[in-house]
Design goal:
The complex is a heterodimer. Chain A is mainly beta. Helix content of chain A is 0%, strand content 54%. Chain A has strands at residues 4-7, 10-14, 19-25, 32-37, 44-49, 55-58, 61-65, 71-76, 85-92, 99-101, 105-110. In chain A, strands 2, 4, 5, 9, 10 and 11 form a 6-stranded mixed β-sheet that branches. A 5-stranded antiparallel β-sheet of chain A has the order 1-3-8-7-6, with no helix packed on it. In chain A, a hairpin with a 2-residue loop joins β6 (55-58) and β7 (61-65). Chain A starts with a strand and ends with a strand. Helix content of chain B is 0%, strand content 50%. Chain B has no helices and 11 strands. In chain B, the strands form 2 sheets. In chain B, strands 2, 4, 5, 6, 9, 10 and 11 form a 7-stranded mixed β-sheet that branches. In chain B, strands 1-3-8-7 form a 4-stranded antiparallel β-sheet, with no helix packed on it. Classes of the chains: A mainly beta, B mainly beta. Chain A binds chain B through residues 1, 6, 9, 30-31, 33, 35, 40-45, 48, 50, 88, 90, 92, 97-104, and chain B through 4, 31, 33, 35, 40-45, 48, 50, 56, 58-59, 90, 92, 97, 99, 101-107.
Chain lengths: 111, 113
């Protein structure tokens, strides 16, 4: 099945720094989703991308749907302590009802 | 709306025991999913359902069963618990296809010893 490869696996940054993480696939995706998971909770949707080349922002977060449809990135500007968590990319497998997830990028922000 | 509600939050099982993880959603969503999350491994799809009476296997269905008799409920059954099933289980739902995003519950942490 399709796999989503996220990088980096983990990041340790200082408060105020910008963060960039990405997700790649060997197959084309028609939708890219970015989720954040806080400790002890379920993932929460941050940004949804539906069109190749699309650039979407949600506050300090910006995500882009790659032109090739095989990648997406998420940027966080001016990080704050509450940005700590695991960030997942996800997309529909083969355009179907199944949503597959990457392994996540664990973000630690030092105050 | 309560969203997606999972019970219990925690459970410890002995090898060979059985249990049912409950999931309910009050958003009238047609699509429901069960994922398991192992440390550093992301989320793997166990089973999903596109409507009442319809279920299908995901990536890792072995050792699990599901049923979907109503739109609201999507229980996950473990018949013979094994240590490999120690994980955090998440139920999720969405209205339907057409790129609608998933809404997750807060998870059930299961330990099998």
């Amino acid at each position: 099945g399709q796999q989503l490869n996220q990088s980096p696996q983990s990041m340790f940054i200082q408060e105020g720094e910008d963060v960039s993480m990405n997700c790649t696939s060997s197959s084309i995706f028609n939708t890219w989703l970015w989720y954040k998971q806080d400790p002890g909770e379920g993932p929460v949707l941050l940004i949804a991308l539906y069109k190749a080349g699309e650039l979407t922002s949600n506050g300090r977060l910006t995500a882009q749907f790659g032109i090739t449809r095989k990648d997406s990135f998420l940027n966080i500007s001016a990080s704050i302590p509450s940005d700590v968590g695991i960030y997942f990319c996800a997309g529909p497998q083969g355009g179907s009802e199944k949503l597959v997830f990457g392994k996540g990028t664990k973000l630690t922000v030092n105050p | 709306n309560a969203g997606v509600t999972q019970t219990p939050k925690f459970r410890i099982l002995k090898i060979g025991q059985s249990m049912t993880l409950q999931c309910a959603q009050d958003m009238n969503h047609n699509y429901m999913y069960w994922y398991r999350q192992d440390p550093g491994m992301g989320l793997k799809l166990i089973y999903y359902s596109v409507g009442a009476g319809i279920t299908d296997k995901g990536e890792v269905p072995n050792g699990y069963n599901v049923s979907r008799s109503t739109t609201e409920y999507f229980p996950l059954r473990l018949e013979l618990a094994a240590p490999s099933q120690t994980s955090v289980y998440f139920c999720a739902s969405r209205p339907g296809p057409n790129n609608s995003p998933l809404h997750f519950g807060n998870g059930t942490r299961l330990t099998v010893t």
